[in-house]
Amino acid sequence: MKATISDVKNHVGSEVTIGVWLANKRSSGKIQFLELRDGTGYIQGVILKNEVSEETWLNAKELTQESSLYITGTVREDRRAPSGFELTVTSLKTIQIAHDYPITPKEHGVEFLMDHRHLWLRSSRQHAILKIRDEIIKATYDFFYDHGFTKVDPPILTGSSAEGTTDLFHTKYFERDAYLSQSGQLYMEAAAMALGKVYSFGPAFRAEKSKTRRHLIEFWMIEPEMAFCTHEESLEIQERYVTYLVQRILQKCQAELQTIGRDTTKLEKIKAPFPRISYDQAIDFLKQEGFTDIEWGDDFGSPHETAIAEHFDVPVFVTEYPAKVKAFYMKPDPDREEVVLCADLLAPEGYGEIIGGSQRIDDLELMKKRYEQYHLNDPSYKWYLELRQYGSVPHSGFGLGLERAVAWICGLDHIRETIPFPRLLNRIYP
């Protein structure tokens, strides 16, 4: 019977055949222990010399790291095994013997591993991280579907920018200028006017020359947008969504969290509602913490966000930023026009901003003024202004950076491990 490692629990006592790669092996006299993987999990295969043919025994001895094979054996329970099961091998068929596999069990430098990212993905740690990433994506779909959202896919090639063209990748769209999208938000606002509550999940690109552990050139964004929704209501959705993601990983990915050595007691604290501080309060706090150079009106960098977040065990909202450091489309506070109805959600443990969101300007005349202030006279912005002209309503939305969320939930040192093939300032290979 053909099976996978993940479903051997359903075949205890039965003989199964699994297509696998050899992750590692060791021998002790007349016993060989094979650490096997098939993409769904890991299992140990035990070969007893006196219980298999001489051909099977010799073929097993010839196997090298990452050799591929079909292995046949009887599934048995073993509570000492990481998966809870072992395979008593009866036969095997070699597909390919791998020679000189470059990633060995010894220590390797980061650049070496990144140059061999196509192979590094096979390691147990990288496998676990990508499984957690996958579960976060599935949980995202489940959450928004259960809350009445419709998934909409905005374009990747755009004729304009959501937040200015400084950090955009420019290309030619036949005879016209075009850009790789840095956000689908403007298009999601249009979709919300048609469908009420929508979200997108897709790639975004920023030509930001940053080398920090929090930045990627190509990354994935989840961007919900909600018609007839205030900023306060959006914050409540955000904290429920993040809580749902964390609880889902704790429920579904215990084995993966254990593999990467994540301290789950920190994740167990993540429950809505989250604390909130205003930008004004954050400035006062930072000055008290020794950031004497920061002034009201300055945007926060990574050290500032880290200092604020370290004061809390759970994510914290920083609200009401100055309008001048935020995007043109954010709605001013009716009681204080120099600040906007927005918030950044900062993850604990030094992971920085994982969500940025706001209530959007819905007044046509105010948006016209913003167009003048930001020099948005390009015809490619005409359609966005028309959203305020034909049936405008209060609406809010936010964007969650998938890789930053994965980095935080997994407790990773660098964002490069959160995506299969990271694109960094100095890296576009492999």
From TrEMBL:
CDD domains: AsnRS_cyto_like_N, AsxRS_core. Residues 130-430 form the Aminoacyl-transfer RNA synthetases class-II family profile domain. PROSITE patterns: AA_TRNA_LIGASE_II (PS50862). It is an enzyme of class 6 (ligase). It is found in: Cytoplasm. InterPro entries: Aa-tRNA-synt_II, aa-tRNA-synth_II, aa-tRNA-synth_II/BPL/LPL, Asn-tRNA-ligase, Asp/Asn-tRNA-synth_IIb, NA-bd_OB-fold, NA-bd_OB_tRNA. Keywords: Aminoacyl-tRNA synthetase, ATP-binding, Cytoplasm, Ligase, Nucleotide-binding, Protein biosynthesis. GO terms for molecular function: asparagine-tRNA ligase activity. It catalyses: tRNA(Asn) + L-asparagine + ATP = L-asparaginyl-tRNA(Asn) + AMP + diphosphate + H(+). SUPFAM superfamilies: Class II aaRS and biotin synthetases (SSF55681), Nucleic acid-binding proteins (SSF50249). The keyword Aminoacyl-tRNA synthetase applies. Signal peptide: none annotated. Its main location: cytoplasm. Belongs to the class-II aminoacyl-tRNA synthetase family. HAMAP family: Asn_tRNA_synth. This is Asparagine--tRNA ligase. It comes from Sporolactobacillus mangiferae. The gene is asnS.
